[in-house]
Design goal:
A hairpin with a 4-residue loop joins strand 17 and strand 18. The longest helix is centred in the last third of the chain and has 18 residues. The protein has 459 residues and is of the alpha+beta class. The strands form 4 sheets. A 7-stranded antiparallel sheet has the order 15-12-14-13-17-18-16, with helices on both faces.
Length: 459
């Protein structure tokens, strides 16, 4: 447990109202979306870079583990306090410091909620594309730490493609800046990109400089149903070969469609065994032309039905098919392992067939959906933890899924990160030499291993 001396020192830094050792408060910050739980010794809520700097100086001197935390919405255990210590919550650092309309750049603090930031820039005719499913509550600091993705990444890229500068407090209490507000900059190593996706193991992000785009004039949404997953996957490749890069290319496989049918009143034809939600954006005058071209390209690929939205309300209704998926999965089994493998987009059908074989091998239902445009498949292994042996089956199935993705030239995590959930499988993807270089970077920046220890690498 945290000593009384160190508790009082932390209290002096952040104020009595912003630190707690009560069990109720510690429980609130002991878990994330993985459903795993680790109790910290204390929870602190700093409000400035200087307070975080002083916390890290104290923690490094006293060898106290520190676990940075945004909204705690991660699927890999990245913010879990696996070694007790301090949970450092960034939610009080929640200001949008500047939106520079002339240079299309914004500067924010890490506790800003993703959707709130998007709405703020859109009021000014600007656009921040990354849109993780958790955008209504996840914070930008967490998005940077995990290099979050989302449906729009097929066209616009992931979080790291929009982060051009950071202010970071290091594990030893230094405050450094990386990058800056310019679109170019090649002085020294690219520490900005190093920090993006480092899962809070290399520094605590205190400011973020974000590149913005002009807001597209309009968007148009189509829901396309196919008679097979092969047809849907071929459609994705065919659309992109046709020199169209949609904003989103979301897919659902047959098992997912069955879940939606059972859990909702949404009308999906019995012959539909795969769904694509295709959205295009840009100048209004080009959208109809693009949609007609897409229809022409995909028509020979087993299309069952195409529904096109002509109003924002109709678009929302089409997206309801996708948004109903997570809730509908509970009809299959009460517990799920949500993995986020990524394969080359042309390999999606082959990967789905591998997953179907794995489901049959272990006798566990597996439901697949995700971002077909970039080959990012959310593999949901559905079990009931109360049934003896189900958890063991899930673990074996997860390893086989990862191996299958790697065999196809893919990766075991497209956007959720490693955290603790995928740490045991790191040797499947990263060579010992590459892992040693990564560990050397961690050791250099965090010699006492006090910042988010136990994540990514088990040793």
């Amino acid at each position: 447990m945290l000593s009384e001396h160190n508790f009082l020192a932390l209290q002096e830094i952040v104020g009595a109202a912003n630190i707690s050792m009560s069990k109720a408060d510690r429980i609130c910050y002991s878990y994330d979306a993985t459903q795993q739980q680790y109790l910290p010794d204390a929870v602190v809520h700093p409000a400035s870079t200087d307070e975080i700097r002083r916390i890290m100086l104290l923690a490094n001197r006293e060898m106290i583990p520190v676990f940075p935390r945004g909204a705690g919405s991660g699927f890999s255990g990245g913010s879990l306090p696996v070694k007790g210590g301090i949970v450092l919550v960034t939610e009080r650092l929640d200001r949008i410091l500047e939106i520079d309309e002339q240079n299309l750049v914004a500067t924010v603090e890490p506790g800003v909620v993703t959707e709130a930031f998007q709405k703020a820039v859109e009021k000014l005719g600007l656009f921040y594309p990354p849109d993780p499913a958790s955008l209504k509550f996840s914070t930008l600091g967490g998005n940077v730490a995990e290099c979050a993705g989302g449906p729009r990444c097929v066209k616009y890229g992931v979080t790291k493609d929009f982060i051009i500068g950071l202010e970071v407090v290091t594990p030893t209490g230094d405050v450094i800046t990386t990058g800056g507000p310019t679109m170019k900059g090649v002085v020294g190593y690219d520490l900005t990109k190093l920090m993006c996706g480092s899962e809070g193991t290399l520094g605590v992000i205190t400011k973020i400089i974000i590149k913005l785009l002009p807001l597209p004039e309009a968007k148009k949404t189509m829901l396309v149903m196919f008679d097979s997953i092969d047809g849907a996957a071929q459609a994705v490749s065919a659309i992109i070969r046709g020199k169209i890069i949609p904003t989103t290319l979301e897919f659902m496989d047959g098992r997912t469609i069955d879940c939606v049918r059972q859990a909702t009143n949404l009308d999906l034809p019995p012959s539909a065994r795969a769904v694509l939600i295709i959205e295009v954006d840009g100048d209004q005058e080009f959208l109809d032309k693009q949609c007609e071209k897409i229809k022409h390209i995909i028509q020979p690929l087993g299309v069952v039905e195409i529904r096109t939205a002509t109003t924002p309300e109709e678009s929302e209704a089409l997206w309801q098919v996708r948004r109903s998926v997570s809730a509908s999965l509970r009809k299959v089994n009460p517990d799920k392992f949500n993995e986020d493998i990524c394969v080359p987009r042309s390999k999606v059908p082959e990967m789905i067939r591998k997953v179907d074989s794995i489901a049959e091998k272990y006798g566990v239902p597996i439901v697949n959906f995700g971002h077909a445009g970039d080959g990012n498949i959310h593999v949901n292994i559905m079990i009931n933890r109360k049934i003896p042996g189900d958890l063991d089956k899930a673990k074996l199935a997860i390893e086989d899924v990862f191996k299958g993705a790697l065999e196809l030239g893919g990766t075991m995590s497209g956007e959720h990160g490693v955290g603790i959930a995928k740490a045991p499988y790191i040797p499947l993807e990263i060579t010992p030499a590459a892992a040693n270089y990564m560990k050397a970077i961690k050791k250099s920046l965090d010699p006492n291993n006090i910042l988010n220890p136990g994540k990514i690498f088990l040793d």
